[in-house]
Write a structure and sequence with these properties.
218 residues, alpha/beta, Rossmann fold, Arc Repressor Mutant, subunit A, 5-stranded parallel beta sheet, 8 helices
Length: 218
Amino acid sequence: MRVLVVEDERMLADSIAEGLRAEALAVDIAYDGDAALERLGLHAYDVLVLDRDLPLVHGDDVCRAVIGSGALVRILMLTAAADVRSRVAGLSLGADDYLPKPFAFEELVARVHALGRRARPADPPMLERAGVRLDSAHRQVFREGRYVPLARKEFGVLAELLRAGGAVVSTEDLLEKVWDEHIDPFTNAVRMTVMKLRRKLGDPPVVETVPGVGYRIP
């Protein structure tokens, strides 16, 4: 899942992003509405965590622009105003959910995950192929019954390959869905992550390289 956090309080924005990354999510940050619109034009996000009171372009206008564009991103609006009228106003703009500040981080994470499930077709409780079983709810992976501990990016890559159902997933798609915008598009991060994933999953190898195209689990 790829998330854009838009919050002008930099410490709060960075804290939210750090916590969501710990949940194996790819997270980008914008500190004002103008930067948010720029990033939304460049990347396909699953969830937008949007502060309402933003400089340069107000959060309400960002929300209107997203809805008007037809983008499928789900919007979680944040605001210091907790009264009912403010919540109704935020939702009437097209936001999918509304969370007043201050909030418990665990609740924010739960709401982001819930919106992410609505942004894409729901995964089955288990993703399984070629003897590999991935339990996304408990973040566990097994190979022929053997537990396989994976780092966050390895887990993310494996999840995307399993979701593809045997189809090839390009390096570009893996970078878009598993990494954030700070990754160098010419990096070998995908190749290195796949190499580590193969080693941890063991023999016989299940991740196949399709030269010049990407990777798949046939």
